[in-house]
Amino acid sequence: MNIYVGNLALSVTEAELRQEFVAFGTVTAVTMMNDTHFGSGQPRAYCYVEMPSKNEGELAVSVMNGKSLQGRIMNVIQAMPISPEAHDGRRTRTQGIRSHRFIR
């Protein structure tokens, strides 16, 4: 199960997050997000935690959501998979772009 963890303090480390989530089961990966695309490499205020067991992941989400870590209240939810209709980060018509008819 892939878990989104948001509203993190910028000083939170991968090891700290792993320690928080390992209490609920096996943690296979913690992916800290940063601004590598912009060249700054600055940490972002969110990450993804991967847990192989859905039951353990759901328990972690229910307990960790709203918990404080380094003075920040975390937002913890199940991460949604990327839509197979998305292409290169652009939305398609089936993803909500509406065509408009102009009446004269």
Can you offer a commentary on this structure?
This protein has about 100 residues and is α+β, with helices and mostly antiparallel strands. Helices cover about 20% and strands about 25% of the residues. The strands form 2 sheets. It has a 4-stranded antiparallel β-sheet with strand order 2-3-1-6, covered by helices on one side. It has a two-stranded antiparallel sheet with strand order 4-5. It is globular and about 40 Å long.
Overall mean pLDDT stands at 83
CATH superfamily: RRM (RNA recognition motif) domain
Domains, number: 1
CATH top level?
Alpha Beta
Secondary-structure arrangement, i.e. CATH architecture: 2-Layer Sandwich
| Assembly state | single chain
Looking at CATH, which topology would you report?
A: Alpha-Beta Plaits
The end-to-end span amounts to: 52 Å
Overall form: globular
Low-confidence stretches are: 91-104
- Element-level helix/strand string: EHEEHEEE
Structural class of the secondary structure composition? alpha+beta
Strand content: 25-35%
Give the biggest beta sheet: 4 strands, antiparallel
Alpha carbon gyration radius: 18 Å
**Strand runs, count:** 6
Domain RRM: 1-81
Pfam family, one: RRM_1
Organism: Dehalogenimonas alkenigignens
GO molecular function: RNA binding
Descriptors:
RNA recognition motif, 6 strands, two-stranded antiparallel sheet, four-stranded antiparallel sheet, Alpha-Beta Plaits, disordered C terminus, 104 residues, Nucleotide-bd_a/b_plait_sf, alpha+beta
